[in-house]
Amino acid sequence: MEFEVSYTLDNEQQFWDELEEIVSAQCQSHELIDNTLRSYLTFTTNYKGEYVQTEYDIARCSYRLLESSLFATHKDYVRRQIVYSLLQVWEYPQTRGTPNTCEQEDSPDTLHIIIALLLFDGRQNEVTFEMMNEEGVFPRLLELIQGRTDDDAGLHRMLLELLYEMSRIQRLRIEDLILIEDDFIAYMFQIIEGLSDDVNDPYHYPVIRVILILNEQYMVSAHDPTPDQSQPPITPLANKVIAILSSLGSSYKTFGENIILLLNRESETSLQLLILKLLYLLFTTPQTYEYFYTNDLHVLLDIILRNLLDLPPSSIALRHTYLRVLYPLLASTQLKSPPHYKRHELVRLLAMMAEDSSNHFGAVDETTKRLVGRCARVAWLKEQEEVAGGSPLKVKQRLLSVEMPSAMESSLSVVEVASQKERPGVKTPSRAEDAKNEERNGKSTEDESDGVTPTNDDRIGKALEDEKSPFEVEGET
């Protein structure tokens, strides 16, 4: 039975009242749920542009459904129907679900509402992203991202965010990765180049994150190709991110500048690891040794030195990853040529990190010693006659005498780099930030409020604030 209702609204409040009534419907059967979801999509889509104009409005519409009793009672069914609506459910056999449940025209407005629902729900409940992967949503997202270049910019950005969020919490299927064409990767880089005059453009952040997460997926696929050991080995896929930068890197320099800027500003550990993984491949692939401008490499080295000093002793895995990136940066890029940038500072830092127990780094593990020793063996650092700051030469000698592993060390490093993971949202510990927090905690806590439950608006604002780009620095225009 068709379920159509026409609405005549006089003001915005009537819109929100009517939306609340729709999602508050008591549904005891799948047919009634389907009617309510169809009514919700039709109603929000019809008034998009009139009462639903901003990202906040779209998020508010999404949370009206996600926080409704309908959703709380029938989560799995509602999620699956929304996923099917994205996949154009009528193309699937009836055994996949109720056909035509949420069938809508493939319009930008309808897609925007559907994508928002999946994105905001998935950020709170990863089972949504897992369901999307199981149902084969990845190819659909590729199609929509590349096929809607001239449509609503807000929708395009949200599509990029959904692809990123879905891909970063799980391993993508090989059959999905195979579908990524060279043209799609090149298109991502071209978007960034087209925005190169405005680093604060909101497109920079989601596009860069898509490139970074696809690079990680390629790395994981290459170095762990057979999750099911009962299956024969799979030939690793070519990493199309590295392939494009190897052949066309000179055309996509803005991307390189931006990932260095992002590493400088990003506080989330998982995203730092994504950047470091790409840097590692760029510095260990001969065709991309000199992808970056020399001045950008100077900035990158400053960031790595600062972060190595700032990481607390507990951040062992992240420290190891920085050191694994540092070695090829020093040995293979323009930094190996005179004048040798920050040579004194490098030797001094490496000497500190090689000590069995330093005041700054505490007890040093054997892997750190090995990685430090490898960096110290870079030819232009070995030429340094003295350790900066008057440290005894025997410290340097001990630094340079750390036993090196076999010739397999390089291949082991890439496996270690590829395997490093951190849950989304976890912030990187910082000595400097810890000191600031201690200072704040020592002051008055009168502004703290106990037992206050966040409002719906608070949650929506937090969801949008979490996605603010690190490129957007307060005070910049």
Fold blueprint:
Blueprint: H1 12-23, H2 30-46, H3 55-66, H4 69-73, H5 75-86, H6 108-124, H7 127-134, H8 137-147, H9 153-168, H10 174-177, H11 182-194, H12 204-223, H13 240-248, H14 253-265, H15 269-284, H16 294-310, H17 316-332, H18 343-354, E1 357-358, E2 362-363, H19 366-376, H20 379-382, H21 393-400, H22 409-419, H23 431-441, H24 456-465
Antiparallel strand pairs: 1-2
Helix pairs in contact: 2-5, 2-6, 3-6, 3-24, 5-6, 6-9, 8-9, 9-12, 11-12, 12-15, 12-22, 14-15, 14-16, 15-17, 16-17, 17-19, 18-19, 18-21
The main pleated sheet reads as: 2 strands, antiparallel
Q: Unreliable segments (pLDDT under 50, ≥5 consecutive)?
A: 89-105, 385-409, 444-449, 473-477
- What is the multimeric organization of the chains shown? single chain
* Share of residues in helices: 55-70%
Total helical segments: 24
Helix and strand sequence: HHHHHHHHHHHHHHHHHHEEHHHHHH
- Rg estimate, integer Å: 26 Å
Hey, roughly how much beta strand do the residues contain?
under 5%
Instruction: Kindly report the spatial arrangement of strands forming the biggest sheet.
Output: 1-2
Find the count of extended strands (DSSP E, 2+ residues): 2
Q: What is the global morphology? A: elongated
Mean pLDDT: 80
Q: Report how far the terminal alpha carbons are from each other.
A: 54 Å
Question: What structural category arises from helix and sheet content?
Answer: mainly alpha
